[in-house]
Amino acid sequence: MAISFDKAFGTHMHAMQLRADRSAVIANNIANADTPGYQARDIDFDQMLKSRMGNPSGNLQMKTSDAQHNTQLLQPDAINGLMYRVPNQPAIDGNTVDVQTERAEFARNTLQYQAAFTFLNSRVKGLKNVIRGD
Question: Which of 53, 50, 45, 40 is nearest to 19 (CA)?
Fold first, then answer.
C-alpha cells in the first residue's frame, strides 16, 4: 500500500512553501524601505493556500468580532498572487513600506513556518515508527 504524502501531511506541506515565499516577499519589502515609489507587497496566504490545495471556492474567511474590523488590508494584483499592502501612512516619495509592520509580519510568518515544520517533523517521525512497526 502506497503512502500518499498529500494525505499524510495535509495542508502543512503547502503551507511551508507559501510561508517561505511570503518570507522572501516581506524581506524584499524591508530591503526596499528607502526606495522612492516602491509599493509594499504581500501574499494573501489564505487565497494562495486554497488555490494550491485545488479549492479556490473554499471557506477560509477571517472571522471578526466587530463589524468595523478591517478584513481587506491587501489590494489584489493579478500577477502571480502578490497583493499590494495598503499603507497606514505612505511616505512623501510614494514608498508604502512601514518597516515596523514588515518586521512584525516577518516574525509572525517565521513562527508560523516553524510551527508547520514542527508538525511535519512529528508526522514524519510517526510514519517512520509505523513503517518500522514500533
Answer: 45
C-alpha cell at 121: 517533523
Q: How many residues does the chain have?
A: 134
User: Beta-strand (E) ranges in 2-97?
Assistant: 41-43, 74-76, 82-85
Q: How far apart are CA 13 and CA 31, in angstroms?
A: 28
Other CB atoms closer than 10 Å to residue 91's CB: what's the count?
Answer: 15
Tell me the HSE value of 54 on the side-chain side, using a 13 A CA sphere: 2
Cell of 87: 499603507
86 pLDDT more than 70: yes
Closest to 77 (Cα-Cα) out of 42, 28, 118: 42
pLDDT tens-place string over residues 104-129: 999 999 999 999 899 888 888 888 88
In 3-state terms, what secondary structure has residue 122? Answer: helix
